[in-house]
Fold this protein.
Amino acid sequence: MKIAFFDTKPYDKPYFEKYGKEYGVTFKFFETKLTADTVELAAGYDGVCAFVNDRVDAAVIDRLQELGVGILALRCAGFNNVDMKHAFGRLHVLRVPAYSPYAVAEHAMALLLTSVRRIHKAYIRSKEFNFSLSGLTGFDLHGKTVGIVGTGKIGKVFAGICLGFGMRVLAYDKYPDAELVKRAGVEYVTLDALFAESDVISLHCPLTEETHYLVNADSISRMKKGVVIINTSRGALVDSEALLSGIKSRQVGAACLDVYEEEADLFFEDNSGHIMEDDTLARLITMPNVLVTSHQAFLTEEALENIAETTVKNIVTLAETGECPNELCYRGGEAKDCKSGKCFS
Protein backbone atom coordinates (compact mmCIF):
# COMPACT_ATOMS: atom_id res chain seq x y z
CA MET A 1 0.00 0.00 0.00
CA LYS A 2 1.27 3.45 -0.96
CA ILE A 3 -0.14 6.45 0.89
CA ALA A 4 0.36 10.16 0.18
CA PHE A 5 0.74 11.87 3.55
CA PHE A 6 -0.23 15.56 3.57
CA ASP A 7 0.52 18.41 6.01
CA THR A 8 3.52 16.56 7.44
CA LYS A 9 5.19 17.85 10.58
CA PRO A 10 8.52 16.65 12.03
CA TYR A 11 6.77 14.91 14.92
CA ASP A 12 4.60 12.83 12.54
CA LYS A 13 7.26 11.01 10.56
CA PRO A 14 8.99 8.81 13.19
CA TYR A 15 5.73 7.23 14.34
CA PHE A 16 4.25 6.67 10.87
CA GLU A 17 7.54 5.35 9.50
CA LYS A 18 7.69 2.91 12.42
CA TYR A 19 4.20 1.47 11.94
CA GLY A 20 4.35 1.74 8.15
CA LYS A 21 7.42 -0.50 8.14
CA GLU A 22 5.80 -2.89 10.59
CA TYR A 23 2.58 -3.31 8.58
CA GLY A 24 3.90 -2.90 5.03
CA VAL A 25 2.53 0.58 4.27
CA THR A 26 4.75 3.05 2.39
CA PHE A 27 4.25 6.74 3.08
CA LYS A 28 5.31 9.62 0.88
CA PHE A 29 5.44 12.69 3.12
CA PHE A 30 4.36 16.06 1.74
CA GLU A 31 4.61 19.23 3.81
CA THR A 32 1.82 20.94 1.89
CA LYS A 33 -1.81 20.67 2.94
CA LEU A 34 -4.28 18.68 0.86
CA THR A 35 -6.35 21.15 -1.19
CA ALA A 36 -7.72 21.46 -4.70
CA ASP A 37 -4.35 22.97 -5.68
CA THR A 38 -2.24 20.10 -4.30
CA VAL A 39 -4.44 17.05 -4.88
CA GLU A 40 -2.44 16.10 -8.01
CA LEU A 41 0.36 14.97 -5.68
CA ALA A 42 -1.83 11.98 -4.82
CA ALA A 43 -1.51 10.54 -8.33
CA GLY A 44 -0.20 6.98 -8.22
CA TYR A 45 -1.09 6.36 -4.57
CA ASP A 46 -3.67 4.01 -3.09
CA GLY A 47 -4.77 6.50 -0.47
CA VAL A 48 -4.14 9.82 1.20
CA CYS A 49 -3.58 10.60 4.87
CA ALA A 50 -4.98 13.95 6.01
CA PHE A 51 -5.16 16.05 9.16
CA VAL A 52 -7.58 18.60 10.62
CA ASN A 53 -6.69 21.55 8.37
CA ASP A 54 -6.57 19.71 5.06
CA ARG A 55 -9.53 20.73 2.90
CA VAL A 56 -11.26 17.67 1.51
CA ASP A 57 -14.14 19.31 -0.31
CA ALA A 58 -16.17 18.03 -3.26
CA ALA A 59 -13.57 19.12 -5.83
CA VAL A 60 -10.77 17.30 -3.98
CA ILE A 61 -12.91 14.19 -3.53
CA ASP A 62 -13.84 14.06 -7.22
CA ARG A 63 -10.21 14.44 -8.28
CA LEU A 64 -9.05 11.76 -5.83
CA GLN A 65 -11.63 9.40 -7.31
CA GLU A 66 -10.46 10.24 -10.84
CA LEU A 67 -6.88 9.51 -9.79
CA GLY A 68 -7.91 6.08 -8.51
CA VAL A 69 -7.36 6.97 -4.86
CA GLY A 70 -9.81 4.96 -2.78
CA ILE A 71 -8.86 5.71 0.82
CA LEU A 72 -8.95 8.89 2.87
CA ALA A 73 -7.25 8.06 6.17
CA LEU A 74 -7.81 10.83 8.71
CA ARG A 75 -5.21 10.84 11.47
CA CYS A 76 -7.65 12.58 13.81
CA ALA A 77 -11.08 12.11 15.33
CA GLY A 78 -12.83 15.12 13.81
CA PHE A 79 -13.99 15.14 10.19
CA ASN A 80 -15.69 18.53 9.77
CA ASN A 81 -13.08 19.39 7.11
CA VAL A 82 -14.40 16.61 4.88
CA ASP A 83 -17.51 16.88 2.72
CA MET A 84 -18.86 13.60 4.03
CA LYS A 85 -22.06 13.69 2.01
CA HIS A 86 -20.06 13.95 -1.20
CA ALA A 87 -17.42 11.46 -0.06
CA PHE A 88 -19.92 8.69 0.64
CA GLY A 89 -19.73 6.11 -2.13
CA ARG A 90 -16.59 7.70 -3.57
CA LEU A 91 -13.97 7.28 -0.85
CA HIS A 92 -13.47 5.07 2.15
CA VAL A 93 -13.12 7.66 4.95
CA LEU A 94 -11.31 6.25 7.99
CA ARG A 95 -10.56 8.06 11.22
CA VAL A 96 -8.94 7.68 14.64
CA PRO A 97 -11.92 7.97 17.01
CA ALA A 98 -9.82 7.90 20.19
CA TYR A 99 -6.08 8.34 20.50
CA SER A 100 -5.55 9.76 23.99
CA PRO A 101 -8.45 11.42 25.76
CA TYR A 102 -6.04 12.11 28.59
CA ALA A 103 -3.85 14.29 26.36
CA VAL A 104 -6.69 16.67 25.44
CA ALA A 105 -8.39 16.66 28.83
CA GLU A 106 -5.13 17.32 30.67
CA HIS A 107 -4.30 20.16 28.29
CA ALA A 108 -7.70 21.71 28.97
CA MET A 109 -6.99 21.62 32.70
CA ALA A 110 -3.47 22.96 32.14
CA LEU A 111 -4.94 25.94 30.28
CA LEU A 112 -7.49 26.51 33.03
CA LEU A 113 -4.93 26.40 35.83
CA THR A 114 -2.53 28.60 33.91
CA SER A 115 -5.27 31.15 33.35
CA VAL A 116 -6.86 31.31 36.79
CA ARG A 117 -3.53 31.24 38.65
CA ARG A 118 -1.82 33.69 36.25
CA ILE A 119 1.08 31.28 35.75
CA HIS A 120 1.88 32.62 32.29
CA LYS A 121 2.24 36.14 33.68
CA ALA A 122 4.35 34.98 36.62
CA TYR A 123 6.65 33.05 34.28
CA ILE A 124 7.32 36.13 32.14
CA ARG A 125 7.93 38.28 35.22
CA SER A 126 10.34 35.87 36.84
CA LYS A 127 12.39 35.63 33.62
CA GLU A 128 13.01 39.36 34.10
CA PHE A 129 13.68 38.90 37.86
CA ASN A 130 10.41 40.64 38.70
CA PHE A 131 9.05 38.76 41.70
CA SER A 132 6.17 41.08 42.52
CA LEU A 133 2.84 39.34 43.18
CA SER A 134 0.75 42.36 42.28
CA GLY A 135 -1.98 41.43 39.80
CA LEU A 136 -1.44 37.69 40.11
CA THR A 137 -4.35 36.89 42.43
CA GLY A 138 -6.33 33.90 41.18
CA PHE A 139 -9.15 31.80 42.60
CA ASP A 140 -9.65 28.27 43.91
CA LEU A 141 -11.17 25.69 41.60
CA HIS A 142 -12.37 23.75 44.63
CA GLY A 143 -16.05 24.41 45.17
CA LYS A 144 -16.56 26.03 41.77
CA THR A 145 -19.01 24.72 39.17
CA VAL A 146 -17.72 23.48 35.83
CA GLY A 147 -20.02 22.85 32.90
CA ILE A 148 -18.85 20.23 30.38
CA VAL A 149 -20.49 20.21 26.96
CA GLY A 150 -20.01 16.74 25.54
CA THR A 151 -19.26 13.68 27.66
CA GLY A 152 -17.52 11.41 25.21
CA LYS A 153 -14.14 9.95 26.05
CA ILE A 154 -12.42 13.33 26.49
CA GLY A 155 -15.31 14.93 28.34
CA LYS A 156 -15.43 12.02 30.79
CA VAL A 157 -11.72 12.28 31.54
CA PHE A 158 -12.01 16.04 32.02
CA ALA A 159 -14.96 15.48 34.38
CA GLY A 160 -12.83 13.11 36.46
CA ILE A 161 -10.02 15.67 36.67
CA CYS A 162 -12.45 18.38 37.78
CA LEU A 163 -13.99 16.10 40.39
CA GLY A 164 -10.49 15.51 41.70
CA PHE A 165 -10.20 19.24 42.27
CA GLY A 166 -13.40 19.20 44.30
CA MET A 167 -15.50 20.93 41.68
CA ARG A 168 -19.21 20.52 41.09
CA VAL A 169 -19.57 19.04 37.61
CA LEU A 170 -22.54 19.79 35.35
CA ALA A 171 -22.78 18.19 31.92
CA TYR A 172 -24.78 18.41 28.75
CA ASP A 173 -24.88 15.71 26.10
CA LYS A 174 -27.52 14.49 23.68
CA TYR A 175 -26.84 11.02 25.03
CA PRO A 176 -26.27 11.20 28.81
CA ASP A 177 -24.03 8.55 30.36
CA ALA A 178 -25.83 6.92 33.29
CA GLU A 179 -22.61 5.39 34.59
CA LEU A 180 -20.98 8.82 34.78
CA VAL A 181 -23.82 10.00 36.97
CA LYS A 182 -23.87 6.87 39.10
CA ARG A 183 -20.14 6.49 39.67
CA ALA A 184 -18.89 10.07 39.55
CA GLY A 185 -21.81 12.19 40.65
CA VAL A 186 -21.93 14.27 37.48
CA GLU A 187 -25.22 16.16 37.03
CA TYR A 188 -26.73 16.27 33.53
CA VAL A 189 -28.64 19.49 32.93
CA THR A 190 -30.01 21.51 30.03
CA LEU A 191 -27.70 23.81 28.10
CA ASP A 192 -29.48 26.82 29.55
CA ALA A 193 -28.91 25.58 33.09
CA LEU A 194 -25.28 24.78 32.33
CA PHE A 195 -24.70 28.28 30.93
CA ALA A 196 -26.43 29.94 33.88
CA GLU A 197 -24.74 28.01 36.69
CA SER A 198 -21.19 27.32 35.52
CA ASP A 199 -18.13 29.28 36.62
CA VAL A 200 -16.12 27.41 33.98
CA ILE A 201 -17.42 26.00 30.68
CA SER A 202 -15.36 23.48 28.73
CA LEU A 203 -16.31 22.31 25.23
CA HIS A 204 -15.72 18.66 24.33
CA CYS A 205 -18.24 18.07 21.56
CA PRO A 206 -17.86 17.57 17.79
CA LEU A 207 -18.52 20.35 15.32
CA THR A 208 -21.86 19.82 13.58
CA GLU A 209 -24.57 22.07 12.17
CA GLU A 210 -26.21 21.88 15.59
CA THR A 211 -23.09 22.86 17.56
CA HIS A 212 -21.74 25.48 15.14
CA TYR A 213 -21.34 28.73 17.13
CA LEU A 214 -22.67 27.06 20.25
CA VAL A 215 -20.96 29.89 22.11
CA ASN A 216 -22.41 33.04 20.59
CA ALA A 217 -23.61 36.47 21.66
CA ASP A 218 -26.90 35.11 22.96
CA SER A 219 -25.45 32.16 24.90
CA ILE A 220 -22.70 34.36 26.35
CA SER A 221 -25.33 36.77 27.64
CA ARG A 222 -26.93 33.87 29.51
CA MET A 223 -23.69 32.80 31.20
CA LYS A 224 -22.49 33.83 34.65
CA LYS A 225 -20.62 37.10 34.64
CA GLY A 226 -16.89 36.35 34.69
CA VAL A 227 -17.23 32.84 33.21
CA VAL A 228 -14.09 31.08 31.97
CA ILE A 229 -14.55 29.43 28.57
CA ILE A 230 -12.29 26.56 27.43
CA ASN A 231 -12.28 25.20 23.89
CA THR A 232 -10.01 22.28 22.97
CA SER A 233 -12.41 20.75 20.44
CA ARG A 234 -13.13 22.67 17.24
CA GLY A 235 -12.74 26.39 16.62
CA ALA A 236 -16.15 27.04 15.10
CA LEU A 237 -17.91 25.94 18.27
CA VAL A 238 -17.19 29.53 19.34
CA ASP A 239 -18.17 32.72 17.52
CA SER A 240 -14.85 34.53 17.91
CA GLU A 241 -16.30 38.01 17.40
CA ALA A 242 -18.95 37.34 20.05
CA LEU A 243 -16.28 36.00 22.40
CA LEU A 244 -14.18 39.12 21.88
CA SER A 245 -17.19 41.33 22.65
CA GLY A 246 -17.92 39.25 25.74
CA ILE A 247 -14.38 39.73 26.98
CA LYS A 248 -14.43 43.47 26.33
CA SER A 249 -17.73 43.83 28.22
CA ARG A 250 -16.31 41.77 31.13
CA GLN A 251 -19.11 39.21 30.75
CA VAL A 252 -16.42 36.62 29.95
CA GLY A 253 -13.72 36.56 32.60
CA ALA A 254 -11.19 34.53 30.61
CA ALA A 255 -10.87 32.34 27.54
CA CYS A 256 -8.58 29.35 27.02
CA LEU A 257 -8.42 28.40 23.34
CA ASP A 258 -6.50 25.57 21.74
CA VAL A 259 -8.52 25.92 18.54
CA TYR A 260 -9.76 28.84 16.45
CA GLU A 261 -12.40 28.95 13.74
CA GLU A 262 -10.05 30.40 11.10
CA GLU A 263 -6.97 28.44 12.14
CA ALA A 264 -6.42 26.48 8.92
CA ASP A 265 -3.86 28.85 7.40
CA LEU A 266 -2.32 29.90 10.71
CA PHE A 267 -1.90 27.09 13.21
CA PHE A 268 0.98 24.60 12.97
CA GLU A 269 3.07 27.21 11.13
CA ASP A 270 5.66 29.80 12.21
CA ASN A 271 4.05 33.15 11.43
CA SER A 272 6.31 35.19 13.70
CA GLY A 273 7.87 37.03 10.77
CA HIS A 274 4.57 37.95 9.17
CA ILE A 275 1.91 40.58 9.79
CA MET A 276 -1.15 39.00 11.38
CA GLU A 277 -4.00 39.71 8.97
CA ASP A 278 -6.67 38.06 11.13
CA ASP A 279 -7.71 41.04 13.26
CA THR A 280 -9.96 39.00 15.54
CA LEU A 281 -7.26 36.50 16.48
CA ALA A 282 -4.72 39.31 16.88
CA ARG A 283 -7.04 41.15 19.26
CA LEU A 284 -7.83 38.00 21.23
CA ILE A 285 -4.14 37.24 21.71
CA THR A 286 -3.50 40.76 23.02
CA MET A 287 -6.11 40.35 25.74
CA PRO A 288 -4.48 39.68 29.15
CA ASN A 289 -7.16 37.14 30.06
CA VAL A 290 -6.96 35.07 26.87
CA LEU A 291 -4.66 32.06 26.42
CA VAL A 292 -4.17 30.66 22.91
CA THR A 293 -2.26 27.50 22.05
CA SER A 294 -2.03 26.29 18.46
CA HIS A 295 -4.10 23.09 18.44
CA GLN A 296 -1.53 21.24 20.53
CA ALA A 297 -3.81 19.50 23.03
CA PHE A 298 -3.30 16.18 21.22
CA LEU A 299 0.49 16.52 21.15
CA THR A 300 1.83 13.91 23.55
CA GLU A 301 4.08 10.95 22.82
CA GLU A 302 1.31 8.55 23.77
CA ALA A 303 -1.23 10.22 21.48
CA LEU A 304 1.16 10.38 18.51
CA GLU A 305 1.94 6.69 18.96
CA ASN A 306 -1.75 5.78 19.09
CA ILE A 307 -2.63 7.99 16.12
CA ALA A 308 0.01 6.42 13.91
CA GLU A 309 -0.74 2.84 14.92
CA THR A 310 -4.51 3.20 14.52
CA THR A 311 -4.23 5.02 11.19
CA VAL A 312 -1.95 2.36 9.72
CA LYS A 313 -4.08 -0.48 11.08
CA ASN A 314 -7.19 1.17 9.58
CA ILE A 315 -5.56 1.21 6.15
CA VAL A 316 -4.32 -2.37 6.38
CA THR A 317 -7.60 -3.72 7.76
CA LEU A 318 -9.58 -2.12 4.94
CA ALA A 319 -7.14 -3.39 2.31
CA GLU A 320 -7.17 -6.95 3.65
CA THR A 321 -10.84 -7.39 4.57
CA GLY A 322 -12.71 -4.73 2.61
CA GLU A 323 -14.09 -3.20 5.79
CA CYS A 324 -12.89 -1.23 8.81
CA PRO A 325 -14.57 -0.56 12.17
CA ASN A 326 -13.27 3.02 12.10
CA GLU A 327 -14.87 3.87 8.77
CA LEU A 328 -17.30 6.78 8.53
CA CYS A 329 -20.52 6.64 6.56
CA TYR A 330 -23.26 9.10 5.68
CA ARG A 331 -26.69 7.91 6.68
CA GLY A 332 -29.85 9.74 7.63
CA GLY A 333 -28.45 13.11 6.66
CA GLU A 334 -25.35 12.99 8.86
CA ALA A 335 -21.91 11.44 9.04
CA LYS A 336 -21.47 8.74 11.65
CA ASP A 337 -19.39 5.72 12.54
CA CYS A 338 -20.39 2.67 10.53
CA LYS A 339 -21.41 0.02 13.05
CA SER A 340 -21.15 -2.86 10.58
CA GLY A 341 -17.89 -1.81 8.97
CA LYS A 342 -19.57 -2.11 5.55
CA CYS A 343 -20.81 1.38 4.78
CA PHE A 344 -19.23 2.02 1.39
CA SER A 345 -21.45 1.80 -1.68
About this structure: The mean pLDDT is 94. The radius of gyration is 21 Å. The longest strand covers residues 252-257.
